[in-house]
Amino acid sequence: MPDSRHLGGRRPIREFDLIRTLRHRFGDTGPGVLDGIGDDAAILQPPPDRHLLVTTDLLSEGIHFDRRFSGFKEIGYKAAVANLSDIAAMGGIPHSLLVALAIPPSCTASEIQSLYHGLMVPCRTHEVTLIGGDTSSSLKHLLITITMLGWVEMGKALTREGARTGDLLFVSGTLGDAYGGLKILKKRKRQSGPNPLRPHERYLVARHMRPTPRIALGRLLATHQLASSVIDLSDGLSGDIRHICQRSRVGVTIQAEALPLSPQCRRFAREQNKDPVEFALTGGEDYELLFAVPPTKHHSLIRHAQQLPIRLTCIGTIRSHTYGIRLQLPDGSTRNIPHTSFEHGQVTGLP
Ligand code: ADP
Ligand code: MG
Question: Residues with Cβ within 6 A of ligand 1?
Protein backbone atom coordinates (compact mmCIF):
# COMPACT_ATOMS: atom_id res chain seq x y z
CA MET A 1 0.00 0.00 0.00
CA PRO A 2 1.35 3.45 -0.79
CA ASP A 3 1.48 5.59 2.33
CA SER A 4 2.83 9.01 3.14
CA ARG A 5 5.96 7.56 4.72
CA HIS A 6 8.84 10.00 4.32
CA LEU A 7 11.95 8.83 2.56
CA GLY A 8 15.05 10.90 2.12
CA GLY A 9 16.20 13.72 4.34
CA ARG A 10 16.97 17.24 3.09
CA ARG A 11 13.69 17.40 1.19
CA PRO A 12 11.85 14.32 2.37
CA ILE A 13 10.37 12.15 -0.37
CA ARG A 14 6.84 10.95 0.17
CA GLU A 15 6.49 7.41 -1.10
CA PHE A 16 2.95 8.00 -2.33
CA ASP A 17 3.91 11.14 -4.27
CA LEU A 18 6.94 9.46 -5.76
CA ILE A 19 4.94 6.48 -7.04
CA ARG A 20 2.26 8.79 -8.46
CA THR A 21 4.90 10.86 -10.28
CA LEU A 22 6.63 7.76 -11.61
CA ARG A 23 3.33 6.41 -12.84
CA HIS A 24 2.47 9.62 -14.68
CA ARG A 25 5.85 10.28 -16.16
CA PHE A 26 7.16 6.84 -16.93
CA GLY A 27 4.42 4.24 -16.48
CA ASP A 28 2.84 4.12 -19.95
CA THR A 29 1.14 0.90 -20.82
CA GLY A 30 2.78 -0.64 -23.85
CA PRO A 31 1.91 -3.65 -26.00
CA GLY A 32 1.32 -6.69 -23.83
CA VAL A 33 0.84 -4.61 -20.65
CA LEU A 34 -2.80 -4.81 -19.53
CA ASP A 35 -2.07 -3.05 -16.23
CA GLY A 36 1.20 -1.49 -15.10
CA ILE A 37 2.06 0.64 -12.08
CA GLY A 38 -0.76 1.17 -9.60
CA ASP A 39 -2.15 -2.18 -8.56
CA ASP A 40 -0.79 -4.99 -6.40
CA ALA A 41 0.78 -6.61 -9.45
CA ALA A 42 1.11 -5.80 -13.13
CA ILE A 43 -0.92 -7.83 -15.65
CA LEU A 44 0.87 -8.91 -18.83
CA GLN A 45 -0.37 -10.65 -21.94
CA PRO A 46 2.50 -12.83 -23.19
CA PRO A 47 2.64 -13.33 -26.97
CA PRO A 48 1.79 -16.86 -28.11
CA ASP A 49 4.61 -19.39 -28.54
CA ARG A 50 7.14 -17.39 -26.58
CA HIS A 51 9.18 -18.23 -23.52
CA LEU A 52 9.45 -15.62 -20.78
CA LEU A 53 12.96 -14.39 -19.89
CA VAL A 54 13.49 -12.85 -16.45
CA THR A 55 16.66 -11.26 -15.13
CA THR A 56 17.45 -9.17 -12.09
CA ASP A 57 20.40 -7.05 -10.98
CA LEU A 58 21.08 -5.42 -7.65
CA LEU A 59 23.24 -2.29 -7.74
CA SER A 60 24.68 -1.14 -4.47
CA GLU A 61 26.07 2.36 -3.99
CA GLY A 62 29.81 2.32 -3.33
CA ILE A 63 30.12 -1.15 -4.89
CA HIS A 64 28.54 -0.87 -8.35
CA PHE A 65 28.31 2.88 -8.76
CA ASP A 66 29.68 5.97 -7.16
CA ARG A 67 27.68 9.18 -6.91
CA ARG A 68 30.97 11.12 -6.90
CA PHE A 69 31.73 10.06 -10.51
CA SER A 70 28.28 9.64 -12.03
CA GLY A 71 25.09 11.65 -11.98
CA PHE A 72 21.75 9.97 -11.28
CA LYS A 73 20.84 10.00 -14.96
CA GLU A 74 24.00 8.11 -15.88
CA ILE A 75 23.54 5.62 -13.03
CA GLY A 76 20.01 4.93 -14.25
CA TYR A 77 21.11 4.58 -17.86
CA LYS A 78 23.79 2.02 -17.04
CA ALA A 79 21.54 0.08 -14.69
CA ALA A 80 19.01 -0.35 -17.50
CA VAL A 81 21.71 -1.33 -20.01
CA ALA A 82 23.06 -4.06 -17.69
CA ASN A 83 19.62 -5.68 -17.75
CA LEU A 84 18.96 -5.07 -21.45
CA SER A 85 22.32 -6.69 -22.16
CA ASP A 86 21.31 -9.82 -20.22
CA ILE A 87 18.16 -10.11 -22.34
CA ALA A 88 20.30 -9.55 -25.48
CA ALA A 89 22.62 -12.38 -24.42
CA MET A 90 19.61 -14.73 -24.25
CA GLY A 91 18.49 -13.68 -27.75
CA GLY A 92 15.32 -12.07 -26.41
CA ILE A 93 13.13 -9.06 -27.07
CA PRO A 94 13.13 -6.93 -23.90
CA HIS A 95 9.59 -6.08 -22.81
CA SER A 96 9.20 -4.50 -19.38
CA LEU A 97 10.96 -3.72 -16.13
CA LEU A 98 10.38 -3.32 -12.40
CA VAL A 99 12.55 -1.07 -10.25
CA ALA A 100 12.95 -1.55 -6.50
CA LEU A 101 14.70 1.23 -4.59
CA ALA A 102 16.01 1.68 -1.06
CA ILE A 103 16.48 5.46 -0.80
CA PRO A 104 18.84 7.05 1.76
CA PRO A 105 18.22 10.42 3.43
CA SER A 106 20.83 12.06 1.17
CA CYS A 107 18.71 11.59 -2.00
CA THR A 108 16.12 14.12 -3.15
CA ALA A 109 12.94 13.49 -5.13
CA SER A 110 14.38 15.23 -8.19
CA GLU A 111 17.49 13.04 -8.04
CA ILE A 112 15.31 9.92 -8.00
CA GLN A 113 13.39 11.29 -10.99
CA SER A 114 16.70 11.85 -12.81
CA LEU A 115 17.56 8.23 -12.10
CA TYR A 116 14.32 7.16 -13.83
CA HIS A 117 14.96 9.60 -16.70
CA GLY A 118 18.29 7.88 -17.30
CA LEU A 119 16.79 4.42 -16.90
CA MET A 120 14.07 5.08 -19.43
CA VAL A 121 16.39 6.40 -22.19
CA PRO A 122 17.65 2.98 -23.37
CA CYS A 123 14.32 1.41 -22.34
CA ARG A 124 12.35 3.71 -24.65
CA THR A 125 14.76 2.94 -27.50
CA HIS A 126 13.76 -0.70 -27.13
CA GLU A 127 10.09 -0.03 -26.25
CA VAL A 128 10.49 -1.40 -22.74
CA THR A 129 7.75 -0.33 -20.31
CA LEU A 130 8.10 0.40 -16.59
CA ILE A 131 5.44 -1.85 -14.99
CA GLY A 132 6.18 -1.57 -11.28
CA GLY A 133 8.65 -1.76 -8.45
CA ASP A 134 8.96 -1.14 -4.76
CA THR A 135 10.10 1.81 -2.68
CA SER A 136 11.71 1.71 0.71
CA SER A 137 14.26 3.65 2.71
CA SER A 138 17.89 2.96 3.49
CA LEU A 139 20.05 4.31 6.30
CA LYS A 140 23.01 5.35 4.18
CA HIS A 141 23.34 3.98 0.65
CA LEU A 142 21.14 3.93 -2.42
CA LEU A 143 20.20 0.41 -3.55
CA ILE A 144 18.66 -0.18 -6.97
CA THR A 145 17.24 -3.54 -8.02
CA ILE A 146 16.01 -3.87 -11.56
CA THR A 147 14.05 -6.84 -12.82
CA MET A 148 13.63 -7.05 -16.57
CA LEU A 149 11.30 -9.30 -18.52
CA GLY A 150 11.62 -10.30 -22.14
CA TRP A 151 10.33 -12.84 -24.64
CA VAL A 152 12.04 -15.29 -26.95
CA GLU A 153 10.61 -17.75 -29.46
CA MET A 154 10.15 -21.18 -27.83
CA GLY A 155 13.31 -23.25 -28.07
CA LYS A 156 15.43 -20.37 -29.42
CA ALA A 157 16.89 -18.89 -26.21
CA LEU A 158 20.67 -18.56 -26.36
CA THR A 159 22.54 -20.03 -23.41
CA ARG A 160 26.12 -20.38 -22.16
CA GLU A 161 25.99 -24.13 -22.81
CA GLY A 162 26.53 -25.74 -26.16
CA ALA A 163 29.99 -24.58 -27.34
CA ARG A 164 31.86 -27.48 -29.00
CA THR A 165 35.52 -28.09 -29.90
CA GLY A 166 36.22 -26.43 -33.25
CA ASP A 167 33.60 -23.67 -32.88
CA LEU A 168 34.86 -20.17 -33.60
CA LEU A 169 34.70 -17.57 -30.85
CA PHE A 170 33.38 -14.13 -31.83
CA VAL A 171 32.93 -10.85 -30.03
CA SER A 172 30.99 -7.72 -31.02
CA GLY A 173 32.30 -4.15 -30.97
CA THR A 174 35.61 -3.26 -29.33
CA LEU A 175 36.90 -4.29 -25.90
CA GLY A 176 38.45 -2.33 -23.05
CA ASP A 177 36.93 1.06 -23.90
CA ALA A 178 34.66 1.22 -20.85
CA TYR A 179 37.57 0.36 -18.57
CA GLY A 180 39.68 3.12 -20.15
CA GLY A 181 36.77 5.54 -19.61
CA LEU A 182 36.53 4.57 -15.94
CA LYS A 183 40.26 5.11 -15.42
CA ILE A 184 39.96 8.56 -16.99
CA LEU A 185 37.05 9.50 -14.71
CA LYS A 186 38.95 8.33 -11.64
CA LYS A 187 42.06 10.23 -12.63
CA ARG A 188 40.08 13.43 -13.16
CA LYS A 189 38.53 13.06 -9.73
CA ARG A 190 41.98 13.04 -8.14
CA GLN A 191 43.05 16.18 -10.02
CA SER A 192 41.77 19.59 -9.14
CA GLY A 193 41.09 22.51 -11.47
CA PRO A 194 39.72 22.54 -15.02
CA ASN A 195 40.95 19.64 -17.05
CA PRO A 196 39.16 19.33 -20.39
CA LEU A 197 39.08 15.87 -21.90
CA ARG A 198 40.87 15.25 -25.18
CA PRO A 199 38.79 13.66 -27.98
CA HIS A 200 40.03 10.08 -27.44
CA GLU A 201 39.38 10.43 -23.70
CA ARG A 202 35.89 11.77 -24.38
CA TYR A 203 35.19 8.75 -26.56
CA LEU A 204 36.28 6.30 -23.85
CA VAL A 205 34.30 8.10 -21.13
CA ALA A 206 31.20 7.98 -23.36
CA ARG A 207 31.71 4.23 -23.87
CA HIS A 208 31.86 3.86 -20.09
CA MET A 209 28.83 6.05 -19.38
CA ARG A 210 26.58 5.05 -22.25
CA PRO A 211 27.22 1.46 -23.34
CA THR A 212 24.98 -0.01 -26.04
CA PRO A 213 23.08 -3.24 -25.35
CA ARG A 214 23.45 -5.55 -28.35
CA ILE A 215 19.79 -6.44 -28.68
CA ALA A 216 19.74 -6.63 -32.51
CA LEU A 217 22.75 -8.96 -32.53
CA GLY A 218 21.19 -11.23 -29.90
CA ARG A 219 18.00 -11.39 -31.97
CA LEU A 220 19.95 -12.23 -35.11
CA LEU A 221 21.84 -15.05 -33.37
CA ALA A 222 18.62 -16.45 -31.88
CA THR A 223 16.30 -16.21 -34.87
CA HIS A 224 18.85 -17.80 -37.25
CA GLN A 225 20.25 -20.12 -34.54
CA LEU A 226 23.81 -19.10 -35.42
CA ALA A 227 25.53 -19.44 -32.04
CA SER A 228 26.17 -22.50 -29.90
CA SER A 229 26.88 -20.49 -26.74
CA VAL A 230 26.46 -16.80 -25.83
CA ILE A 231 27.28 -14.51 -22.90
CA ASP A 232 27.37 -10.74 -22.48
CA LEU A 233 30.62 -9.16 -21.32
CA SER A 234 29.88 -7.44 -18.04
CA ASP A 235 32.82 -8.57 -15.89
CA GLY A 236 35.52 -8.64 -18.59
CA LEU A 237 36.59 -11.19 -21.21
CA SER A 238 38.99 -13.13 -18.96
CA GLY A 239 36.25 -13.75 -16.40
CA ASP A 240 33.25 -14.14 -18.71
CA ILE A 241 34.89 -16.63 -21.13
CA ARG A 242 35.22 -18.92 -18.10
CA HIS A 243 31.42 -19.12 -17.81
CA ILE A 244 31.13 -20.35 -21.41
CA CYS A 245 33.97 -22.84 -20.85
CA GLN A 246 32.55 -24.16 -17.57
CA ARG A 247 28.94 -24.42 -18.71
CA SER A 248 29.92 -25.98 -22.07
CA ARG A 249 32.81 -28.07 -20.57
CA VAL A 250 35.32 -26.82 -23.17
CA GLY A 251 38.61 -24.90 -23.36
CA VAL A 252 39.58 -22.04 -25.66
CA THR A 253 42.50 -20.31 -27.40
CA ILE A 254 42.15 -16.58 -27.78
CA GLN A 255 44.45 -14.78 -30.24
CA ALA A 256 45.91 -11.69 -28.58
CA GLU A 257 46.42 -10.01 -31.95
CA ALA A 258 42.80 -10.53 -32.95
CA LEU A 259 41.27 -8.71 -29.96
CA PRO A 260 39.30 -5.74 -31.33
CA LEU A 261 40.67 -2.52 -29.85
CA SER A 262 39.55 0.98 -30.71
CA PRO A 263 42.26 3.46 -31.77
CA GLN A 264 41.18 5.54 -28.76
CA CYS A 265 41.80 2.64 -26.37
CA ARG A 266 45.20 1.89 -27.97
CA ARG A 267 46.22 5.51 -27.60
CA PHE A 268 45.10 5.76 -23.99
CA ALA A 269 46.88 2.51 -23.05
CA ARG A 270 50.06 3.77 -24.73
CA GLU A 271 49.88 6.99 -22.71
CA GLN A 272 49.52 4.90 -19.55
CA ASN A 273 52.42 2.59 -20.53
CA LYS A 274 49.97 -0.31 -20.44
CA ASP A 275 49.29 -3.12 -22.90
CA PRO A 276 45.82 -2.51 -24.41
CA VAL A 277 45.40 -6.30 -24.59
CA GLU A 278 45.20 -6.27 -20.78
CA PHE A 279 42.42 -3.68 -20.98
CA ALA A 280 40.55 -5.92 -23.41
CA LEU A 281 40.99 -9.01 -21.24
CA THR A 282 40.30 -7.58 -17.83
CA GLY A 283 38.19 -4.45 -18.27
CA GLY A 284 34.50 -4.84 -17.46
CA GLU A 285 31.24 -3.22 -18.50
CA ASP A 286 31.75 -3.41 -22.26
CA TYR A 287 28.32 -5.06 -22.64
CA GLU A 288 29.41 -6.65 -25.92
CA LEU A 289 28.32 -10.20 -26.80
CA LEU A 290 30.81 -13.08 -26.77
CA PHE A 291 29.63 -16.13 -28.67
CA ALA A 292 30.72 -19.43 -30.20
CA VAL A 293 29.74 -20.27 -33.77
CA PRO A 294 29.90 -23.79 -35.28
CA PRO A 295 32.15 -23.76 -38.40
CA THR A 296 29.17 -24.75 -40.58
CA LYS A 297 27.39 -21.52 -39.61
CA HIS A 298 30.34 -19.18 -40.06
CA HIS A 299 29.37 -18.01 -43.56
CA SER A 300 25.78 -17.58 -42.60
CA LEU A 301 26.84 -15.41 -39.66
CA ILE A 302 29.01 -13.19 -41.88
CA ARG A 303 26.18 -12.82 -44.39
CA HIS A 304 23.51 -11.97 -41.80
CA ALA A 305 25.84 -9.69 -39.81
CA GLN A 306 26.14 -7.36 -42.79
CA GLN A 307 22.69 -6.05 -41.81
CA LEU A 308 24.06 -4.85 -38.47
CA PRO A 309 26.03 -1.66 -37.99
CA ILE A 310 28.51 -3.34 -35.64
CA ARG A 311 31.82 -5.00 -36.04
CA LEU A 312 32.11 -8.71 -35.29
CA THR A 313 35.56 -10.19 -34.77
CA CYS A 314 36.67 -13.81 -34.61
CA ILE A 315 39.04 -13.87 -31.61
CA GLY A 316 39.68 -17.56 -31.07
CA THR A 317 38.70 -21.20 -31.27
CA ILE A 318 36.94 -23.51 -28.82
CA ARG A 319 39.18 -26.42 -27.69
CA SER A 320 38.75 -29.46 -25.52
CA HIS A 321 38.20 -28.99 -21.81
CA THR A 322 41.68 -30.30 -20.96
CA TYR A 323 43.34 -27.63 -23.13
CA GLY A 324 42.37 -24.89 -20.68
CA ILE A 325 41.78 -21.20 -21.29
CA ARG A 326 44.80 -19.82 -23.15
CA LEU A 327 45.99 -16.69 -24.91
CA GLN A 328 48.08 -17.08 -28.06
CA LEU A 329 50.70 -14.37 -28.47
CA PRO A 330 51.94 -13.04 -31.85
CA ASP A 331 55.09 -15.27 -31.64
CA GLY A 332 52.85 -18.36 -31.48
CA SER A 333 53.50 -19.12 -27.80
CA THR A 334 50.54 -19.51 -25.46
CA ARG A 335 49.92 -18.66 -21.83
CA ASN A 336 47.09 -19.32 -19.44
CA ILE A 337 44.65 -16.46 -19.14
CA PRO A 338 44.58 -15.67 -15.44
CA HIS A 339 41.22 -15.20 -13.85
CA THR A 340 41.21 -11.48 -13.26
CA SER A 341 37.81 -10.24 -12.35
CA PHE A 342 36.44 -6.79 -12.79
CA GLU A 343 35.06 -5.75 -9.44
CA HIS A 344 32.71 -3.01 -10.56
CA GLY A 345 34.79 0.10 -10.63
CA GLN A 346 38.10 -1.62 -10.01
CA VAL A 347 39.99 -4.51 -11.50
CA THR A 348 41.54 -7.07 -9.21
CA GLY A 349 44.51 -9.14 -10.29
CA LEU A 350 45.86 -6.75 -12.94
CA PRO A 351 49.61 -7.09 -13.30
P1 ADP B 1 2.52 -2.86 -2.35
O2 ADP B 1 2.33 -2.31 -0.97
O3 ADP B 1 1.45 -3.76 -2.84
O4 ADP B 1 3.92 -3.37 -2.58
P5 ADP B 1 3.28 -0.32 -3.38
O6 ADP B 1 2.62 0.78 -2.64
O7 ADP B 1 4.67 -0.66 -3.01
O8 ADP B 1 2.35 -1.59 -3.31
O9 ADP B 1 3.25 0.00 -4.93
C10 ADP B 1 2.12 0.54 -5.58
C11 ADP B 1 2.37 0.47 -7.07
O12 ADP B 1 3.50 1.27 -7.40
C13 ADP B 1 2.68 -0.93 -7.55
O14 ADP B 1 2.12 -1.05 -8.86
C15 ADP B 1 4.18 -0.96 -7.62
O16 ADP B 1 4.63 -1.89 -8.59
C17 ADP B 1 4.51 0.49 -8.01
N18 ADP B 1 5.81 0.96 -7.48
C19 ADP B 1 6.18 1.10 -6.18
N20 ADP B 1 7.43 1.58 -6.07
C21 ADP B 1 7.89 1.75 -7.32
C22 ADP B 1 9.11 2.18 -7.88
N23 ADP B 1 10.15 2.54 -7.13
N24 ADP B 1 9.23 2.22 -9.24
C25 ADP B 1 8.19 1.83 -10.02
N26 ADP B 1 7.01 1.41 -9.56
C27 ADP B 1 6.85 1.37 -8.23
MG1 MG C 1 5.63 -2.21 -2.29
Answer: 1-2, 19, 22, 37-40, 99, 101, 130, 132-135
